[in-house]
User: Fold 16S rRNA (Cytosine967-C5)-methyltransferase from Nonomuraea wenchangensis.
Amino acid sequence: MPRDEARIAAFDVIRAVDERDSYANLLLPRILRDRGIRGRDAALATELAYGTLRGLGTYDAIIEMCSDRAPDPDVRDALRLGAHQLLRMRVPPHAAVGTTVDLVRLRVGPGAAKFANAVLRKIASRTIEEWVPIVAPDADTDPVGHLAVAHAHPRWIVSAFRDALGGDAELPDLLAADNARPLVTLVARPGRSSVKELEEAGATPGRYSPYAAYLREGDPGQIEAVAGTRAAVQDEASQLVALALTRVPLDDDDAAAHGGGERWLDMCAGPGGKAGLLDAIATHGDTAAGPDGFPGGARLLAADVQFHRARLVWQTTRHADVVTADGTEPAWRPGVFDRVMLDAPCTGLGALRRRPEARWRRDPSAVAELGRLQRRLLGTALDAVRPGGVVAYVTCSPHLAETRVVVGDVLARRGDAEQLDARAHLPEVDGLGDGPHAQFWPHRHGTDAMFLALIRKRRP
Assistant:
């Protein structure tokens, strides 16, 4: 019997995530490359691994109902893989059951294979639409619990999303968008590449950012501009929050007083996505905006507390000064920067569609711990910017405790800063909320759920 390399690769990824807390988005490409899995088999392995990891909560509830005992961890992971094929993929039931049983027989043993066969046949007796009402709480009495199981999100995350949206109306659409495969979005760094060049490599122009392009298939690393760091993979919302920072008019023309050009700081720059775009704009200007964009001539200092992340920033930028430094204990003098980007460490709840296992790794305690760090970093960011300058506070999370609450708490303790209307600097995009902050959403914009607040340092 020939080995089913795609399913074996997916199973090995799921086991590594479960057993060793591996990151699927880092491990899977390496396994595919090392084992020579390409084309349709690589696409199948990717869908099997990512889809299974996204749906763990739902699949576990169904497996529990179909089992007379708790499966061993390796058997449970195989059952999760089989459940995904039976319930969410167009794999014929006999093939989904048969290949999963073969996998269990190969990796665990014949006795476990018989158990897996019995459980999978029970799972196959109903569709996902029939299973959800059985394993999920009642939608009328417990809507959050029902959505948590139906859309495979932890309950606390569903509650946080509902609070951030301001109600239930869009919640199912958001959760569904989190489970959809995201497009690969590229950025053509101005002065170094162009959207036209990316189009010639098979991409299509982005929806919002003038530097964005979508790659619907293929390996972005094979594109010459990406391989040469003239372009990169970067979510469109990530591009736009960086652009918004460069678009805010400064309160005066003091940039010339300290060296003839603006000074920019990216405080938590690793792994370098926003720093790469800011560095290109600082050097070459906002080439897509014409006379209304930043003309260039700025200098970027990019910092990260971890050396390996700072090294990634150094590799992706061309002209920036890159240092390893703790933003809570600044290595720079206060009040010297015109613009400061603070992409604060956060739970990453806005990028769950790209990191399939992340939703099951986080817990609410992380929000409070990160909130303390976010407040300290925003305080030092405001200390770093000069009067009349501007700070962009960004998180890849819509959780209110990481976004509006952090900004409100910090500004309430200071009399030297005011929040600007971020939406005014993102005219390409509708549906960013009631302001003054801007909130991107996967179901509205097709981007990560990224938050942006723009804050100006007042004059004394």
